[in-house]
Design brief:
Blueprint (H helix, E strand, L loop, with lengths): L3 H6 L2 H8 L7 H7 L8 H13 L3 H9 L7 H5 L4 H9 L7 H18 L12 H11 L4 H23 L2
Helix pairs in contact: 2-3, 3-4, 4-10, 8-9
C-alpha cells in the first residue's frame, strides 16, 4: 500500500495503473484527477477522482454506469469480474445466493436494465444481499434521472472505499 508521498511521485502511467480501476473500467477518471496533484491527503485524492467524475459529460457518466457489472450476473458466473468487484459482491453475500434469490435477482436486474438502460449500481460493501434486493425493488419506481444520480452517488461510495484500500 503506497503512502501519499509515493502516490504524488508516481508517473502518469503508474498513477493510471494504480488508480485506473477505482472507477470500474474507467481509467480516464484517474488520468484527469492526476492534474490536481499533489494531494495533501487521501481525502484530497478521493476528491480529485470524484471531481473528475462529476465534471465529466453526461455521456461519460452514462458510460461509467454501464461499465459496472450486473450484481451476481453473467460476469460473476463467467468469472470475469474485476478483482475489486468480485470481493465486494462476495462481501455482500452475493456469491452465496440461494437458487430462488439468484433467480429473483436476475429478474430484477433485467427489469432494471430494461427500464433505465444501464445496470443497477449499489455499493455492495455497505449492503447485504437482502438490503440490495430491497433497494433494487424500490429503485425500480424511480425516474431515469433519479437513477442516474443514485448510480453516480453509489459509484462515488465504491470509489471512496477502493481508494481507502489502496493508499495508507
Amino acid at each position: 500500500m503506497p503512502t501519499l508521498d509515493e502516490v504524488n511521485r508516481l508517473s502518469p502511467r503508474d498513477f493510471s495503473t494504480a488508480f485506473g480501476a477505482v472507477y470500474e473500467h474507467s481509467p480516464w477518471i484517474a488520468q484527469r484527477a492526476l492534474e490536481r496533484r499533489p494531494f495533501d491527503s487521501r481525502e484530497a485524492l478521493q476528491s480529485a477522482l470524484y471531481g473528475a467524475m462529476q465534471a465529466s459529460s453526461d455521456a461519460e457518466k452514462l458510460a461509467l454506469i454501464r461499465a459496472h457489472p450486473m450484481l451476481a450476473g453473467k460476469e460473476a458466473d463467467a468469472g470475469t469480474l474485476t478483482d475489486a468487484s468480485e470481493r465486494e459482491q462476495a462481501a455482500a453475500g452475493l456469491g452465496a445466493l440461494t437458487p430462488d434469490q439468484k433467480a429473483e435477482l436476475a429478474i430484477l436486474n433485467a427489469r432494471y436494465a430494461d427500464t433505465f438502460g444501464f445496470p443497477f449500481v449499489i455499493c455492495a460493501r455497505l449492503n447485504r444481499r437482502d438490503a440490495i434486493l430491497g433497494t433494487l425493488r424500490a429503485r425500480l419506481h424511480n425516474t431515469r434521472e433519479q437513477e442516474i444520480a443514485n448510480a453516480i452517488a453509489q459509484i462515488g461510495e465504491i470509489a471512496r472505499l477502493r481508494v481507502a484500500d489502496l493508499v495508507s
